[in-house]
Amino acid sequence: MVTVFKMNKKYKIHIVLLMLLFVSLNGLAQDKVFLRDSKVIACKIIAISEKTITYKDTAINAVMTTLPKKDVLLIEYQAGEIYMFSNDEKTVKVEKSNIAFKIENEVLETREQRKERKMKEWKEQEALLSNNILGFYVPELVLGRFTVSFERLFANKSVGIKIPFSLTYNSFRALSSISSLNSSSTNTTSSSSSTTSSNSNNTNEQPVRGVGFIIGIDVNYYHDIKPSLKYYFGPRLRYGTDMMLGGIEGLTFQLQNGIFKSSGKRFTSTLGVGFGFFKLSERYANTGSYDVKQVYPWASFTWRLGFRL
Predict the structure, then answer these.
(1) DSSP-assigned letter for residue 209
(2) What is the CA radius of gyration of the chain?
(3) Would you say residue 202 has pLDDT above 60?
(4) Could you tell me if 272 and 160 lie in one domain?
(5) What is the C-alpha to C-alpha distance for residues 164 and 135, in angstroms, rounded to an integer?
(6) In terms of residue numbers, what domain contains 258?
(7) Which CB contacts under 8 angstroms, 24+ apart, belong to 56-64?
(8) 32 belongs to a structural domain
């Protein structure tokens, strides 16, 4: 026996409406976005990027909306996951199952944070660069010096010990020789005694010929200013013979400072100035022409082109 229940038309309509509502609620995800101004948005969250949150409203054919993350207090997914956004722009994930908090470094960088990040990235790159630098001092060529140096960096490239070596010469000797030759050719009609006297005077007036050597040591302390650029300072010591200054021999001590720049993986450049004193060698003590006890002020300007080995 089969019993048939007849339904009122009014109840049929109610059942259909409830079924449609159930289908629509299940078809549209009910994620929630809680704003800092206490507004709550029911939506479908599409994406969370480093700086923004994109969602789509629950209305049919709704367009996607993007909010800055700083305006959002927290979001809640339909599945139960909750993400909170603190004032320092860190994202905190709250897992309801075990009430655990997870900090995710999806932060908006400030200027200081970006500076620290770039410096950290540079230090990681710099650690892979060679600690040995071969240097050439190009401007010194016109000042009577051919100088090369070898520098070894220590302590994560914060300290450098440099050994320079210079071959010195009188760069104006050729001009002086040409001038002396022209002077002697104009006096060919002079007597032999006058010629001899003139030649001896020219010899005395000519600059010292030959070459000299200067060697020394520098200790540089490097401080990072920004990626690939450092400030340095430290003592500088030199001893040898300077042919441009008449072949005098002596010791110089200076405190120098300057800028050190790295260019790519191989090249460096150094620009610096130094101030100190100069003291003549004791070998001039018995000549009577120099006071070896006297200390003279001294200064230098250097530009070095370096190659990492």
Answers:
(1) P
(2) 41
(3) no
(4) yes
(5) 9
(6) 132-194+206-308
(7) 58/28, 58/29, 58/30
(8) yes
- Counted domains in the chain: 2
Place 93 in a pLDDT band, splitting at 50, 70 and 90. low
227 in a domain, yes or no? Answer: yes
The answer on 177 and 42 residing in a single domain is: no
Q: Is the same domain home to 147 and 51?
A: no
Tell whether pTM > 0.70.
no
CA distance 134 to 155: 19
**Closest Cα partner for 257 from 270, 272, 268, 271?**
272
Q: What is the C-alpha to C-alpha distance for residues 219 and 154, in angstroms, rounded to an integer? A: 11
The 3 state secondary structure assigned to 113-163 is HHHHHHHHHHHHHHCCCCCEEEEECHHHHHHCEEEEEEEEEECCCCEEEEE
Task: Identify whether the C-beta of residue 283 lies closer than 8 Å to the C-beta of residue 255.
Answer: no
250: nearest Cα among 196, 304, 295, 191: 295
173-185 and 192-205 helices, crossing angle to 10°: 170
Give counts: helices (H), strands (E), the chain: 4, 16
Average pLDDT over residues 153-163: 96
Q: Do 155 and 257 have their domain in common?
A: yes
Give the burial class of 166: count Cβ atoms within 10 A of its Cβ; 0-12 exposed, 13-18 middle, 19 or more buried: buried
In a domain, 63, yes or no: yes
pLDDT at 55 over 60: yes
| 118/125 Cα distance (integer angstroms) | 11
- Cα within 13 Å of Cα(135), Cβ side: 29
Same domain, 149 and 267: yes
CATH label of the domain that carries residue 225:
2.40.160
Assess whether pLDDT exceeds 50 at residue 197. no
Residue 251 token pair: 């010791």
Question: What is the pLDDT at residue 259?
Answer: 97
